Amino acid sequence: MMSSFNLRTRSSDASSRSSAAGVIRSLHAAAAAIALAFGTLSANAADAPAPVWRTDATATVSQSFDLIRLVPGGLATAVKLTGANPTQYFDFGIRADEVVSQAKLELAFTPSPSLIPGTSQLNVYLNGELQGVQAITKEMLGKSAQISVPLNAKSMKTRNQLSLEFVGHYQIVCENEGNSSLWLDISPSSRLTLQKQNLRLPNDLAQLPTPFADVSFDGPTTLPVVFAGSPSTDALRAAAIVTGRVAAVSAWRGSNFPVYFSEAPAKGHFVVFATNDKRPAFLASLPAFEGPELTIVDAPGSLYEKMLVVGGKTDADLVVAAQAFATPNRVLIGPHALIKDFKVAEPLPAYASPNWVNTDFAVPLSQLIEYPEQLTARGESLPPLHVNFRLAPDTYLTSASTATLSLLYRHSKPVSGQAAQLRTLVNGALADSQNLSVDASRGSAIVELPMTEGPAVALGGTRAGLAAFNDLSFEASYQAVANEGSPENCRAATMPSHQIQIEPSSMIEFDGMFHYAQLPEIGLFTQGAFPFSKYADLSQTAAVVRDGARPIELTTMLNAVGRIAATTGVAPYHITVATQAESAKLKDKDLLIVGPMPKGILDISPESAAALADDVSKWFAAPAADAGKKPAADAASEEALLDTGFAAIVSVRSPLDDGRTAVAFFAEDGASGHLLNTRLSNPGDLATATGGTVFVGEDNIRSFAPGSTYTVGDMPWFRRVWLSLADRPFVLVFCALLAAIVAGAGIFLFMRRWIRRRGMPGTN
């Protein structure tokens, strides 16, 4: 992985490139130039025949998947088939630019020693079609067995489902499907192997964001970004918008955006930003841009890879073209589009992310589900139903906060005399349970979802009940009585099939929740991209880079913005990109700062953490005349930059605005830069980061508390006072004693006055 990353982040003047690689790249460039000369990139490119050196598919590449990682949800640690649960499903996807020529399932399993050999078997299905049947032989019983099942590659689609069905018998007649002797364990070493070829897709903008972001595949997206040289802030802004859109589409899969200067990546689809005056050499034959343009063409020297050209007369045109690319539901047709009369959407209000639940209104479950049958379960043993939803990362729960689920459901009636129950859970914590009626097939309940007071984002540990990330699940179970007997006196009962359906019109109503957070807190950024994600289109965010920033720094900036977009689900249409000299553009903005590791930071310690925080606070302290110069820590480009082997993320109060936050990323070209970008591109990484400074090492992360804190949000003053006292028990005791003394003194004085008035003549 390290070598692959370094290959993708090399610049055009890297002296370490071998002469052989240079020759190959020159041949590729020459081939591309010939193709361009014959009109491949012209306006009539769609009508031109493909060059003779291209084919419809490339050489076969083998790819393997751990079968256990294909279990829906991706969190399974074991797969065990039983008589009551005989089937297990596995989901996987195929990219639109790939075709599977061969496939096989390498299955390792251990069957129960109590099975009857010959009559017990394991069936393999692909998209509902039977692929193979393996009889359980006497030699397999109680021992690990390995088989290889060929799969029909022609049956594979964009989304596929592989299923294993266990048919087990432990006696000839009068069996109990729930008997503990009926089991078959699937080993975690089982693998799905695909022989795949890449296909040459047509050059058509209508398929965007495919193939640059393909959600049919569950793996992360890697989209290289190419500039002709050191880009302007407008070009960087355009890149942030495009990559942010790709990251929002990729969502939980993760995304990585390595930056290149003036050369095409060695592999993969990529996006290039160019103007008439500043374009990479491999675009020399591209016609002059007439305005904001989007063009999809074949990558130089590639059999199937595509490049998206975001072009324009000026750098400002690049921003317009990028915004057009990132606008959902905007259909572009053909290989080329000139963007005319385009108007970007107005900035979004706070907390408008489509990925977050708006706690100001009651929310039906229909708005939270992803497919129609998500709230329906059928079978002898019903699988749990899951609905996921998020709260805004700065949500704060108090003793007055409530989340009430008005639950409506339908179910098959249980057999008379047998019990059935529906349980509602939030993140594994039991919220409520209802007995299913034998007289009616409909039911309703008011369920109070459990929660713990404090910030919704779990900082330093998991929360019980409601949190920022929530899994609302419903588990239905029916009592089953299936007594077995002897062939002469058989008392076996067939286990009936059941069904449970949660009505999508069931509503969750929130009350008493506030937006309140104590900053700086890196955990809020790593888990919820806060405070930048408060405005989903980043209209109040500014990314700050140095003049002449290196490719690794720009990669970090794009990955950080991509992580925010993956959290909000919205492209950063209105993000600001500036250098530290352009402080006027940074007013009233939360700052996302990227730079090299400051000089003198050579270890992981509280002193280094304080020094980094101080360095960020002084980031804009240089006089305006010197702000554009490279700092002494960066020196001349010829000097070797020290690679500390670790990176750092620092959050402080913004140096330019007391009510704003700055989050800075520090790393170098080598291991630390690779490490930081690997962590940023994976949404699940850095989840345990907390505090004001985090050092990212090879194996772990170290967090240090900030030197000072401040709060943001809309919590009422009296609750803020209570929160400030809640962590100080001695202050609470003192206040209670003081209140008791004041109250007692008041009562004493009142009683004395009252007694004196009673003793006065003429007073009753």
Automatic annotation (TrEMBL):
The keyword Membrane is annotated on this UniProt entry: yes
Record-annotated membrane-spanning stretches: 730-751
Membrane topology: Single-pass membrane protein
Keyword Transmembrane: yes
Annotated signal sequence range: 1-45
Keyword list, A-Z: c-di-GMP, Cell inner membrane, Cell membrane, Cellulose biosynthesis, Membrane, Signal, Transmembrane, Transmembrane helix
Domain of life of the source: Bacteria
Known pathway: Glycan metabolism; bacterial cellulose biosynthesis
Compartments it resides in: Cell inner membrane
Pfam families: BcsB
Gene3D superfamilies, A to Z: Galactose-binding domain-like (2.60.120.260)
Record text on subunit structure and interactions: Tightly associated with the cellulose synthase catalytic subunit.
Protein role: Binds the cellulose synthase activator, bis-(3'-5') cyclic diguanylic acid (c-di-GMP).
Annotated PANTHER family: CYCLIC DI-GMP-BINDING PROTEIN
Family: Belongs to the AcsB/BcsB family.
Protein name: Cyclic di-GMP-binding protein
Lineage: Bacteria, Pseudomonadati, Pseudomonadota, Betaproteobacteria, Burkholderiales
